[in-house]
Design goal:
Elements lengths: L15 E4 L8 E8 L4 E4 L4 E6 L9 E6 L2 E2 L3 E4 L6 E2 L1 E5 L5 E5 L10
Antiparallel strand pairs: 1-2, 1-7, 2-3, 3-6, 4-5, 7-8, 9-10
Length: 113
């Protein structure tokens, strides 16, 4: 049996991103969860779906709840915390040899060194 492929994700949990395509286009929010095996992310308040819960003994009434559905990682773009613009992610190599994410527009480091 083949093991599932794990995709490298350039965005991390709690990063501010903007949705660039789909029904939530233009929405900005923080990443709640990263799903590297399915190549998707869950963004707060974006791509909302309605889910109908079945009645149970605890909750005999049927409810309709709103949930965030996963988005493909290519449909979100990182927002730089320094310049507040959507940007691609550049990789800067520190003197100690560690690779750190940086804003491609202003050059500000996104991760702590």
């Amino acid at each position: 049996m083949k093991t599932p492929e794990r995709f490298t994700m350039r965005v991390k949990e709690s990063d501010m991103v903007e949705v660039i395509s789909g029904k939530s286009k233009g929405h900005r929010g923080r990443i709640k969860k990263v799903l590297p095996f399915t190549n998707r992310v869950i963004v707060e308040g974006a791509n909302m779906i309605k889910k109908i819960t079945k009645p149970t003994q605890r909750n005999p009434k049927r409810d309709i709840i709103s949930l965030e559905a996963p988005l493909h990682r290519s449909n979100v773009m990182l927002v730089c915390p320094n310049c507040k613009k959507t940007t691609r992610i550049a990789a800067k190599i520190m003197p100690n040899g560690k690779k750190i994410r940086a804003c491609n527009k202003c050059g500000e480091l996104l991760d702590k060194a």
